[in-house]
Amino acid sequence: SLLSAPEPLMEGTRYALAGSELDAPYDPDDITTTADERDGWRLTGRKSVVYGAPTAEVLLVAAKGPDQVLSLFRVAAKDAEIIGYAMIDGGPAGEVFLEDTPAKLVTKDAGPALQNALDLGALALCAEALGAMEIVQATLIDYLNTRKQFGQPIGAFQVLQHRTIDLAIEIEQARSIVILAASAEGGPEFPKRAAQAKHLVGKIARQVSEEVIQMHGGIGLTWEYPLSHYAKRLVMIDHQLGDTDHHLERLMNGL
Predict the structure, then answer these.
(1) How far apart are the first and last CA of the chain?
(2) Domains and CATH numbers, the chain
(3) What does the mean pLDDT of the chain come to?
């Protein structure tokens, strides 16, 4: 629906979705940014933790008009005040301040399309997390077979073997829910499956990142060792597009 809108998205343009706010981090229904139609559309409000904002050319801003209907607007990044910063995983994000900022309407009554886009984004994040967990799992196994203590690889100790197997089971659970959610895409069950996947994968990703660092010891936290960066990314994924608590609440409320 966004590609066929009166102001469609353009290929080759760097976009950033400015949806979340300080008091509405995940739920589009709680958005308070306002849109007024006078001499064109004008937006007023603040968007928080907008991923990609510092490098974006165009911002896609979710705002409510006088009728309180959620709509999506296109704002040139140069027309907004953007304060950029890096997240804990190094990814760029920023605060976006809009004060009577000129905008173009992309689509009105954008709630369903926006929520579907958020669900698709959540599924993509789950797939990314699954790939990252597979990498840290392989890194852990290699380390356990290489690091020696008391004259033998530490992977020979049964307690570490048990913990490694537990992680393998959790990662397989994550793989199963991601496959299930992906298979439901385009159908009526997709919102529920996407929320289930984001909730479960978020919990497992945090568990995996904590466990592999503990089994590595201090080296697992060093900047030079790739594991630390994967662990930070896994923690950050849980907070993007709804954390575990948010998606659990959605499921409890029937979405």
Answers:
(1) 21
(2) 15-108 (2.40.110.10), 113-252 (1.20.140.10)
(3) 93
- Residue 128 tokens read as 């990314």
pTM equals 0.91
- Full 3-state SS string of the chain: CCCCCCCCCCCCCCEEEECCECCECCCHHHCCCEEEECCCEEEEEEEEEEECHHHCCEEEEEEECCCCCEEEEEEEHHHCEEEEEECCCCCEEEEEEEEEEEEEEEECCCHHHHHHHHHHHHHHHHHHHHHHHHHHHHHHHHHHHHCEECCEEHHHCHHHHHHHHHHHHHHHHHHHHHHHHHHCCCCCCHHHHHHHHHHHHHHHHHHHHHHHHHHHHHHHHCCCCHHHHHHHHHHHHHHCCCCHHHHHHHHHCCC
Length of the chain: 255
pLDDT of 49-97, one tens digit each?
999 999 999 999 999 999 999 999 999 999 999 999 999 999 999 999 9
Select from 43, 106, 97 the least CA-distant residue to 71. 106
Model confidence over 6-15: pLDDT tens digits? 555 667 789 9
d(CA 76, CA 95) in angstroms, rounded, equals 15
